[in-house]
Amino acid sequence: MSEQPLERFSYDDKIVRWFMVATLVWGIVGFLVGLIIALQLMAPNLNFGPLLTFGRLRPLHTNAVIFAFAGNAIFTGAYYSIQRLLKARLFNDTLSWIHFWGWQAIIVSAALTLPLGFTTGKEYAELEWPIDIAIALIWVVFAINLFGTIAKRRERHIYVAIWFYIASILAVAVLHIFNSLELPASFLKSYSAYAGVQDAFMQWWYGHNAVAFFLTTPFLGLMYYFLPKAADRPVFSYKLSILHFWSLVFIYIWAGPHHLHYTALPEWASTLGMLFSVMLWMPSWGGMINGLLTLRGAWHKVRQDPVLKFFVVAVTFYGMSTFEGPLLSIKGVNALSHYTDWTIAHVHAGALGWVGFMCFGMIYWLLPRLYQNDLWSPKLANIHFWLGTVGILLYIVSIYAAGLTQGLMWRAIDDAGRLQYPDFVETVTILMPMYGVRVLGGLLYITGALLCAVNYIKTAQGAPETYEVPVYEAPALAPQPAPPGSTFPPLSPAKLLGGRWHRNWEGLPLVFTVWTLIAIAVASLFEIIPTFLIESNVPTIASVKPYRPLELYGRDIYVREGCYNCHSQMVRPLIAETERYGEYSKPGEFVYDHPFQWGSRRIGPDLHRVGGKYPHLWHLQHMEKPSEVTPKSIMPAYPHLLADPIDFAAIPGRVGVMVTLGAFDEATAPKAEAMAHEQADLIAAQLAEQMHPDDAAKREETTQRYRDKEIVALIAYLQRLGTDIKADVGAGGGQ
Amino acid sequence: MSLQEIMSQADLAFYPQVALVIFAAVFVVISARLLASSKRAAAYEEAAEMPLQELAPTGRPGKEPA
Question: Taking the complete model, does pTM exceed 0.90, yes or no?
Answer without folding.
Answer: yes
